[in-house]
Amino acid sequence: MKHKLLKEHNYSKSLSYAILEISKYDSREKRVDNEFAKESIKAFYKVLIKEGFHNSFSARGADYYSYMLSLIPLYLDLQEQNYNAACNDLLTLCVSEDILQARIYNNLIYLVERELLTDV
């Protein structure tokens, strides 16, 4: 279901592939392939950085901040080092919002850098 919804966004092939890789670890069960899920998020981050953001705006949800409904759980899961659940939240965000909008893109980049890449 989520994979079909991805087609609504005009993501590049490389970004779509990175999102599909994340979907392999789309699980709320803690620590199942947790290290692979972590590496999947890092790979997604690298592709997202290369992709950059665009200046268009579209609010698909109820309001401007609807993307926070996925971003906050993502933040909490990254803090708890539950990367499988983080993949679930990230996939939900990618499907429900256009993550290449500057407001979402910048928050997502900051969050991953702060919580996942501080040791890199």
Quick overview:
By secondary structure, this protein is mostly helical. The chain has helices at 2-6, 13-23, 34-51, 68-79, 83-96, 102-115.
Description:
By secondary structure, the chain is mainly α. About 60% of the residues lie in helices and about 0% in strands. The protein has six helices and no strands. The chain has helices at about 1-5, 15-25, 35-50, 70-80, 85-95, 100-115. Helix 2 (about 15-25) crosses helix 5 (about 85-95). The relative contact order is 0.20.
Q: Give the strand content.
A: under 5%
**How many DSSP H or I helices?**
6
Rounded to the nearest angstrom, the distance between the terminal CA atoms is 34 Å
Rounded to an integer in angstroms, the radius of gyration calculated over CA atoms is 13 Å
Approximate helicity band: 55-70%
Number of strands: 0
- Based on Cα principal axes, name the global outline: globular
Average pLDDT rating: 82
Main sheet: strands, sense, barrel? none
Low-confidence stretches: none
- Classification by helices and strands: mainly alpha
Helix/strand order? HHHHHH
